[in-house]
Amino acid sequence: MIRNLLLTGLIALAAFQGFAQDKPEMITIEGGSFWMGNDYTFNSLGVSDEAPEHKVSINTFKLSKTEVTFQLFDRFCEATGYVKPNDGNKGRGENLPVYNVSWEAAVMFCNWLSSTEHIDKYYNIKRDSSSFSATPIEGAKGYRLPTEAEWEYAARGGNKSQTFSYSGSNKADEVAWYKANSQLAPHEVGIKKPNALGLYDMTGNVWEWCFDYYDKNYYKNSPENNPKGPEKGSDRVYRGGCWTSSLDDLRMSSRHSFSQNKEYGMIGIRLAQDL
């Protein structure tokens, strides 16, 4: 009996230690102010969703050192019965960033990861056959997606910004996997040079979901302090470029959006957390 109890305890401890090794490493991003957006980039119609440049102040928060990997996301799928994302026959090695993940799956993953670490879930999730909502819970310390403003602030280096063209360098090859150097495939996280805050792959490798609804005109009315995006919308923002991106998509002010309930083959997850 005692031997069986000891064996059970050792198995549980091993399982916990194995999971602990998969826990994301979170980096504290000291708050500060920066100029968000870009006044000089326009589409073929002469319109920019990156303008106007505007001053934004961000509170201190945490952001994961790397993008979430297949290893960790697959653990969520196995625990909850959620269908594992398709890897497009590119492999799902333990250090490859997960992709082909919907925004809805991303916020469910955040809540699941919080529960495994016994911390408050960040989102109040309501869903049925026709609708899905994820509302932040005031004061919760669980894992979440970064806001669009937090993402750009961190990509630029936060209060250590050195006005680089890309996140951590003026040379894309130093910090990013993109169309010119990726062999059109994702790469293990954390190989390229990090930015000034110690964050890897903020440009390139896989796109990263933000919490915000997308509105091409949002910057015209965005609040200065900790903007969280429009109150409603249909699509969600994703940022950062991916392994098939051009240099233009690697720009830190570049904005894109996609339906929150659909998977897109090259969008993944970077985690945020309140202090």
How would you concisely characterize the structure shown here?
The chain has 275 residues and is α+β, with helices and mostly antiparallel strands. Helix content is 20%, strand content 19%.
Q: Tell me about the biggest sheet? A: 4 strands, antiparallel
Helix segment tally: 5
Query: What structural category arises from helix and sheet content?
Result: alpha+beta
**Strand residue percentage:** 15-25%
The radius of gyration over CA amounts to 19 Å
Q: Pick out the low-confidence regions.
A: 1-21
**What is the H/E string?**
HEEEEHHEEEHHEEEEE
Number of strands: 12
Specify the helix fraction band. 10-25%
Topology:
Layout: H1 2-20, E1 26-29, E2 32-36, E3 54-58, E4 61-64, H2 70-80, H3 103-116, E5 123-127, E6 132-136, E7 143-144, H4 148-155, H5 172-175, E8 207-213, E9 235-239, E10 256-259, E11 267-268, E12 272-274
Parallel strand pairs: 8-11
Antiparallel strand pairs: 1-4, 2-3, 4-12, 5-6, 7-12, 8-9, 9-10
Describe the structure.
There is one protein chain. The chain is of the alpha+beta class and 275 residues long. The protein is built from five helices and twelve strands. 20% of the residues lie in helices and 19% in strands. The strands form four sheets. The protein has a four-stranded antiparallel β-sheet. A hairpin with a 4-residue loop joins strand 5 and strand 6. The longest helix is centred in the N-terminal third of the chain and has 19 residues.
List keywords for this structure.
275 residues; 4-stranded mixed beta sheet; disordered N terminus; alpha+beta; 12 strands
